[in-house]
Write a structure and sequence with these properties.
alpha+beta, FAD/NAD(P)-binding domain, D-Amino Acid Oxidase, Chain A, domain 2, 2 domains, 3-stranded mixed beta sheet, 19% strand, binds flavin-adenine dinucleotide
């Protein structure tokens, strides 16, 4: 392998195994042409940091997710930082974002202005950092491992930012791969598909069912239901908090069927 360090120095490394943790750099998927199309529509995000100027109506210990009043598949994040600052962003299909012209800051401001509660909350904000955008962030690969390598985190698959699953999946992938490698180097027989690819995908697929249901609107009818059942709420919160591999949770074991049933209940109620 050829490596270039931050000072530009180039050197060669020979290794028994390569873990690619290059995130959106996606070094091995590009070199080995492992990319496969994601089955999600192309979505993008416009985001920035602001001095939020919020005086009331915002719990600074929580991330606020706001849904666009007309389009349930368009949502905003407001993530509080110290010192009265926030990360603010909007996520939508590219075709929606393309309707807005101007700089990324102007486009983000125009979309925020369409959501009255967010507009009011940020009425005194100072937009001191130019916004940026990312398009087509979802990524998928034919296989999460191959002879002599494995893909970790975003270098393998990235679903969607909505449930902040990215870091959870990245850390889980690293922890699974480290365990398999340790056993391999100790001379034990390992099967990367059985011990790494399949178990990692299980949790990813659990998150995927929630992401799909969120954008279709069904999961929103569950989240915003006025009278949630505490035990079901706990099971779902546990998954979104990262326990997406916990097979004792019925919503992990049978995600699609249970979510669909709950959506139906919450929609008619
Ligand atoms: C709009 C948006 C919002 C998000 N919000 C959240 C959130 O709130 N919570 C959450 O959990 N996740 C969030 N995510 C996802 C999260 O950022 C990623 O899933 C997570 O960072 C993946 O970790 P990683 O280690 O795989 O990759 P990264 O964190 O991207 O790390 C990869 C590293 O590899 C380096 N690198 C790349 N190429 C090379 C190369 N050729 N040589 C050397 N180094 C290289 C990069 O510089 C980087 O340091 C969000 C993603 C998006 C798109």
């Amino acid at each position: 392998m050829t490596v270039q360090d931050p000072d530009g120095k180039i050197y060669q490394v020979e290794a028994g195994f390569l873990l690619d943790a290059s995130g959106f750099g996606r070094v091995l998927p590009r070199l080995l042409q492992l990319d496969t199309p994601s089955n999600f529509p192309v979505r993008g995000a416009i985001f920035t940091h602001i001095a939020d100027g919020i005086v009331a109506g915002f719990d600074r210990s929580k991330i606020r997710i706001t849904v666009h009043p007309q389009q349930c598949d368009v949502w905003f994040w407001t993530i509080p930082f110290a010192g009265g600052r926030c990360s603010l962003g909007v996520v939508a299909e590219s075709s929606f974002l393309e309707r807005y012209s101007g700089t990324d800051t102007e486009r983000l401001q125009a979309i925020v202005a369409e959501e009255p509660s967010l507009q009011t909350l940020l009425a005194n904000a100072t937009w001191d950092t130019p916004a940026r955008h990312i398009t087509g962030y979802s990524a998928n690969v034919a296989s999460l491992w191959g002879r002599g390598y494995a893909l970790l985190g975003n270098a393998g698959e990235f679903l969607d930012p909505v449930f902040s699953s990215g870091v959870t999946i990245a850390v889980k992938s690293a922890s699974l791969a480290a365990g398999v490698l340790q056993r391999q180097f100790a001379g034990e027989e390992v099967d990367w598909q059985r011990d790494y690819g399949a178990p990692l995908r299980k949790g990813v697929d659990t998150f995927r069912a929630f992401v799909e249901s969120w954008y279709a609107g069904g999961f929103q009818s569950i989240i915003f239901h006025p009278d949630p059942q505490p035990d079901i709420r706990r099971m779902i919160a546990s998954i979104l908090a990262g326990y997406a591999w916990d097979q004792t949770n019925p919503y992990v074991k049978d995600t699609a069927r249970r979510l669909a049933a709950l959506e139906t209940l919450c929609t008619v109620a």
